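Minutes, project check-in
Item: structure for the 447-residue chain
Input as provided by the requester:
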Amino acid sequence: MTKTSHDCIGLIGVSACVALLILSLPGCGEETTSEESPQTPDSGYIYDTDDTPDSGHHVPDSGTIPEDIPDSGEESDSGAPPDDICESCGIVVSKQSLKLLSASGVQEDSFMVSLDYPNIDPVEISLRLLNENAGTLSADKLTFSTDWDWAEEKEVIVRGNFGEKTLSTSIELTVTNSARDYFGKTATVDVRVCAAGLHDNGSGQCVACAEDETFLGGQCRKGFVFIPSGSFESTAAQQTISMNSFFIAKTETTVAEFKKCVDAGACPAGSYRTNEYSRFCNYESDRDPSIYPMNGLYWSGADSYCKWIGGRLPTEDEWEYAATHDGKQARQTKYPWGDEEPTQCEHANYSDRLSHEFCDGRNIKTAEFGAAPVGTYSPEGDSPLGLQEMSGNVGEWTSSQGYGGDYYSKGGSFASDLVSSLSVSSRLLVEYGGCSMGVRCVIDQGY
């Protein structure tokens, strides 16, 4: 029986065979014949390259490279990469810094972490605070198992209870592996905590927003109203439910505000309609974009905008809760302003085209059919906390879904035919966005 150069490739691999070709080792290069070696092609032996090329000396492939063999730079069979290959390997983190608000109770932030290593033995990423005087701060310890997808990221949640202090610290992440000491790679993530009412200005300083601003979604913002936590009678749930606190925009989003999202590429074409579609759509119309509400929004456009500013769409319950809250509790009133009917259209912009009970088909404040500038119906139509046009003007998308996957809108609009659509309990399941649909965002507390 003979053995060819193809058998050699099966025994030691292509790269080793090429190397041996250069050294003119028997069994590689020209197709030659010899008596069969006692070793079978899959015996797991490799040549000891420290001997002469034709010595025929073999060593068992134990998964380690003997000390007398020069480091070839190739990965050993154990799956553990040598140091020279992994000089650039390490820990990849999604954020270099975390920013947490200091307040009563526990605050938290998180970052994603992955390993920039070849497939190796099970490892642990251990985390420790570099500044032990940073107050109570903890980070979850991660263990990556052998079946972990190496392209996957894991989340590290950092929690702390800081009281009213301002502090700076860092978390050190270290890759450890009991069998491979040279996996001691590290990465650090800075943690910046500013006292309540302050925020990091990006230069390592804790500063306050202007008096009429609130730090939300990563920046100081005007025009958001705080809604405290509490409970209320949910129309959708038909029972009393508990609500967390949040901030909600005082007015409907204007065209100018939405255009910034479009210009940034975060609100794509196709998620909204322009004046070219209908004269009632305000985008790209001759109406003042700084005061007219953005309308013609599909749900995706409304959702994209709220996420872009660091917020989200309100749930149906949050919208009702905010519309009736007086700072102490949610009132049981029919409309945001109370139970008084919107006589002569002084409280809200709606068409009333069917009953002609109040507006006779037109708006007495703007003398036209369509969306009015934000704040037109203030203060008569304001909620107790000063939210404007929660009823009428443009319908406001929520994140609550109904049958068929469509989403509910709240508040009615300038196109609403009946005054009942202006009540806080009223809702409309909307399939797509016409020129009567707009958005009002909420932002949760914190960064």
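Outcome recorded: Residues 209-447 form a domain with the paralog of FGE (formylglycine-generating enzyme) fold (CATH 3.90.1580.10).
No further action items on this chain.
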